[in-house]
Amino acid sequence: MEESVANPYQKYPVRINSVYNETEDKRLKTFGLSFVNSEDSDYFFSQSFQPGQYALVWIPGYGEIPLGIASAPTEHNKLVFTVNKTGKVTSKLHTLTEGMLIGLRGPLGNGYPWEKLKGKNIFLIGGGCAFSTLRSSIKYLLSPENRQDYNDIWIVHGARTPGMLLYKDNFKEWRKRDDVKVHITVDSTSLATGEYHVGNVPFVLKQELPTVDENSVAIVCGPPMMIKYSIDPLKEKGFLPENVLFSLENKMKCGIGHCGRCSIGKTCICTEGPVFSMAEVNEMPDDY
Amino acid sequence: MRPYIFNKSNLSAYLKQLDTVFEVWIPVTENGITTFNLFNKQNDIDLGKIPRTSVKSFFLPQHELLMEYSASPDSIQLDECLPSKKRIIFGVKPCEGRAVKLNSQLLVPETKYQKQDLYFKANQQNTILIAYGCNQPGVGCFCRSTGGDPFGKTGLDAIVTDLGDRLLLETTGTEISNQLIPKNDLNEEATESDLTAAEQIKKNACKVLDERSEIKVSKENIHTVFDLEIWKETAMRCLNCGICTYLCPTCSCFDMMDYFEDGKGSQSRCWDSCMFSLFTQHSLGHNPRPSKKERVRQRFLHKLRYYPEHHNGEISCVGCGRCVLHCPVNIDIREIADRLSLNGGERG
Ligand SMILES: Cc1cc2nc3c(=O)[nH]c(=O)nc-3n(C[C@H](O)[C@H](O)[C@H](O)COP(=O)(O)OP(=O)(O)OC[C@H]3O[C@@H](n4cnc5c(N)ncnc54)[C@H](O)[C@@H]3O)c2cc1C
Ligand code: SF4
Ligand code: FES
């Protein structure tokens, strides 16, 4: 009951603990944040925060933007975001340094349906800043408390060049494990080391993925073109439309279903999404 | 409880009674445009016209402060700016009460899973609506076609019926409405014959409106509705000026922004419009609604299709006719609704 009267526009102060340049073009930075007040942190994590959710990150004087949460609930009170520098707020964010305070509200929207995914083979496919919620998902799935609930886990991560690949330290760890299959690919490289495939993500899906049945689920997050051309290979491998999950992105302001701008037909992306299956997306009118 | 009745010449005296307790707003015409103004002895109340702007401004103001804050790299202090001023708006149209209710269903939903807009909610708690029923519905009016009524009480605290020389005041039973009862020598109960006269006026008004066709909700497959020719045709005329969305009492889309100077700032919101291309344009340039066709389609389908799908078939149009009267190129939601209902429309 208390929650229903909370002001949804109230923000928690969070402190920037780390800033890391992810990519060689310096357009993607990863920020590590922590809550200033422990009650805010308790509230955030007790809200059954799920990988796949997003938060609105606020810079005083600049505005609020939705960002996929890149850290997992299992990372205990740590928050991570990976930010692509595009406009007003993201550019300002890129100038901020360790120790500074910003604001945050969330977690918002729905995560991936983890309860329903139990016992399934999970294929996490993506590239670019949209990989953020996949990082959260992988951390979550591979944590000791969750790994046994899921079957095979595959990761496919693609970028234009080796210098554009994300979360390099995390990938080093993940590649060492024998309970997850990792495929990394770059569009082109001058030094083929055998560490990655050369080719785009759809190509790798065709070449490396096994044929699957209804017990396999693909979560696909990336630039629109990557998503578009991944659909056919996934269908050919046997993924059902209800087992291919996307995280949709639309311009957002309020994040609570009120300001009216993020909708596709009758569906409000900020509250009913951002996660939708391909079957659901097929039902939506062509307004995205 | 019987309605009250007083002479029209005593209206000002009644408003003064209200004015001692609440701030009172009334419709006033200046330079041919009717808007709500603060009641004072100088301004003349104009009950005959449909105010150009709706009471939306009192519930979801054109510009509204959400938060004030002081911020530095190492401290942030936020204060919410919840509105608290109590006021009465006298002389609204009954359809406005319905519009408030429709917006309230979106912004202050009752299910606890959805977030509540505390600003709209506070405005709702602080704003008392007294309507002036419509003896002679305007040329653009079609409230009965949308499920409303020229003397409907939804969303109102009281309603006045004009009996020519006298005004009949009926409170609606809301918590605050007993504070609207006329006092002293204005406190007189209506007689049986006053009530009969009022009934007749209502019947006449409804008769006029019932000749205007009912708006139906299209239930045709959404992909088919999306491809109708009507969107292209309407978009060719539409200027995307946004007048319809600003004047509409149920259009509630808003933008949010921050101001900041010398360590102090504010976050506020202001009306936005689905008719504008920047409404949906992503930072990287992609726009899901790139042309007028998609934007026009969004506006009408939101009112006539998407809103009803979430709210038991109720359309989010109350038939006030503002968009019909003021669209510079005469785009008419009734014609669009008619064309849509040809494609498998039904109500509820
Ligand atoms: C659910 C979701 C998750 C996202 N996750 C990430 C992420 O992990 N990393 C990342 O870098 N980006 C992410 N984005 C995109 C990010 O929100 C936009 O790049 C950002 O809002 C641009 O803001 P700006 O002020 O720099 O750009 P401007 O062009 O100056 O935008 C002005 C305002 O419009 C809105 N806006 C503009 N473009 C978008 C957009 N594409 N999506 C939402 N709102 C927009 C914002 O309110 C923004 O402040 C996500 C978007 C959504 C909807
Ligand atoms: S008022 Fe008329 S011209 Fe202007 S945006 Fe609305 S429909 Fe288009
Ligand atoms: S972001 Fe405001 S309605 Fe979705």
Describe this structure in words.
The complex is a heterodimer of chains A (288) and B (348). Chain A is α/β, with parallel strands linked by helices and 288 residues long. Chain A has 2 domains: 12-108, Beta Barrel (Elongation Factor Tu (Ef-tu), domain 3); 114-247, Nucleotide-binding domain of ferredoxin-NADP reductase (FNR) module (Rossmann fold), CATH 3.40.50.80. Chain A has helices spanning 38-46, 88-95, 114-117, 132-142, 168-176, 201-208, 224-237, 269-272, 278-283; strands spanning 12-21, 28-35, 54-59, 63-68, 79-84, 101-108, 121-126, 153-159, 181-186, 197-198, 216-221, 244-247, 263-264, 267-268, 275-277. Chain A has a 7-stranded mixed beta sheet, sandwiched between helices. Chain B is an alpha+beta fold and 348 residues long. Chain B is built from 11 helices and 13 strands. The longest helix of chain B has 19 residues, at 192-210. Chain B is globular and about 65 Å long. At the A-B interface, strand 6 and strand 13 of A face strand 4, strand 5, helix 6, strand 11 and strand 12 of B. Bound molecules: flavin-adenine dinucleotide, iron/sulfur cluster and FE2/S2 (inorganic) cluster (FES). The site of iron/sulfur cluster (SF4) has 12 residues of chain B, from helix 8.
Task: Characterize this entry briefly.
The complex is a heterodimer of chains A (288) and B (348). Chain A is of the alpha/beta class and 288 residues long. Chain A is built from nine helices and 15 strands.
N-C termini distance of chain A:
36 Å
Shape of chain B: globular
The radius of gyration computed from the alpha-carbon positions of chain B, rounded to a whole number of angstroms, is 22 Å
Number of strands of chain B: 13
Just name the CATH architecture of the largest domain in chain A: 3-Layer(aba) Sandwich
**Class derived from helix and strand content of chain B:** alpha+beta
**Average of pLDDT of chain B:** 91
The helicity of chain A comes to 25-40%
How would you classify the helix and strand content of chain A by structural class?
alpha/beta
Low-pLDDT parts of chain B are none
Share of helix among residues of chain B?
A: 25-40%
The number of domains of chain A:
2
The first-level CATH class name of the largest domain in chain A: Alpha Beta
Query: Would you report the number of β strands of chain A?
Result: 15
Strand content of chain A: 25-35%
CATH topology type of the largest domain in chain A: Rossmann fold
What share of the residues of chain B does DSSP label as strand, in percent?
15-25%
